[in-house]
Amino acid sequence: MVTAAASPTPSSSATATATRAGSPQATSTAPPVCRGDCNDDRSVNVGELISAVNIALGNASIDTCRAIDADGNQMVAINELIAAVGNALNDCPA
Ligand SMILES: [Ca+2]
Ligand SMILES: [Ca+2]
């Protein structure tokens, strides 16, 4: 009597633990967000305005300039562009 107890069980114990660390929120002591200031240097330059326009047109990802998105809806509206232009012409809010 042959007892075929050959059970090739591939022990696939690959536990993929994807821990998502790090919140995208800034520190609580940060000054007010300077609308359109993509690189967070407290000023809005022409390049950042162009980035904002490109996002508004759908030619660039919102990830290229999160600072332009005031309401966080992943899109750039006219009022957000105007705010960025205002910060470019004047100074960022302290
Ligand atoms: Ca800037
Ligand atoms: Ca928006």
Task: Explain what the structure shows.
α1 (about 45-55) packs antiparallel against α2. This protein has a domain at about 30-94: Type 1 dockerin domain (Orthogonal Bundle). The radius of gyration is 24 Å and the shape is elongated. The protein is mostly helical and about 90 residues long. The mean pLDDT is about 85. The chain has two helices and no strands. Helix content is about 25%, strand content about 0%. Bound molecules: calcium ion (CA) (2 copies). One calcium ion binds next to loops.
Q: Over the alpha carbons, how many angstroms does the gyration radius reach?
A: 24 Å
- The dominant shape is elongated
Largest sheet: none
Q: Provide the succession of SSEs.
A: HH
Give unreliable regions as ranges: none
Total number of helical segments? 2
Kindly provide the name of the CATH class of the domain at 31-94. Answer: Mainly Alpha
Which structural class is indicated by helix and strand composition? mainly alpha
CATH-level-2 architecture of the domain at 31-94: Orthogonal Bundle
Total strands:
0
The end-to-end span amounts to 87 Å
Helix content: 25-40%
Strand content: under 5%
Q: What fold name stands as the CATH topology of the domain at 31-94?
A: Type 1 dockerin domain
What ligand molecules are bound, each kind once? Answer: calcium ion
Mean pLDDT: 84
